[in-house]
Amino acid sequence: MGWEMKGNIPRNIPKSIVIVCPHATWVDFPIGLGVRSLLNMNIYFWGKQELFKGVFGWLFRWLGGYPVDRSKNQNLVNAIVDIYQANKYFHAALAPEGTRKDVQELKTGFYHIAVKANIPIIMVGFDYVNKWVHINDPFYPSGDFDVDKKVIANYYASIPGTQKSWIKNYLA
User: Pairing relation of β-strands 15-21 and 43-48?
Assistant: First the structure.
């Protein structure tokens, strides 16, 4: 598809949560699968449970998907932390924007998962302008989201074409 990759996920890190921004189009998914193939790593992905129903549900599972129930009546963060704690080696990706629309702030579940599971966040940026996938060095959150959200926003602000409302809000 003409995309190139900058950066890598260090092999000595057994667990991480990979966040990918911007979540701009359905093309994000095949690009992500291509990057995972180039990295030659098992990187699972969290996806809304609706993707795993119907005729294509088997495909998303086969591709490494984990369905998540985003309803308000459960503690999704703790359920995902349990999955990390039950595995010696586990990397999973998600789009913290939660939608392809412009958002004012990120969903913060990824952050709480990283803090509770004591794992790094790997920030991946899709540069649609230059067709580059940028993989940042592991970021270990401090536990103070108000401080760390500026680090996250600064990283994504450096990716061409990623001028989203949440970045401006976090840097304000």
Answer: unpaired
Range of 41's domain?
4-171
172 residues of the chain, pLDDT tens digit each: 688 899 999 989 999 999 999 887 878 888 888 888 888 889 998 877 888 888 889 998 898 888 877 666 668 888 889 889 999 999 999 989 878 888 888 989 999 999 999 999 999 999 989 999 999 999 999 999 999 999 999 999 999 877 789 999 999 8
**What is the number of structural domains in the chain?**
1
Find the angle CA(2)-CA(17)-CA(170) to the nearest 5 degrees. 85
The radius of gyration computed from the CA coordinates of the chain, to the nearest angstrom, equals: 15
- How far apart are the C-alpha atoms of 65 and 116, rounded to whole Å? 22
For 79-111, the DSSP string reads HHHHHHHH-SSEEEEE-TT-SSS--SS---HHH
Nearest to 87 by CA among 164, 16, 158: 16
Helix axes 109-117, 76-86, angle to 10 degrees: 40
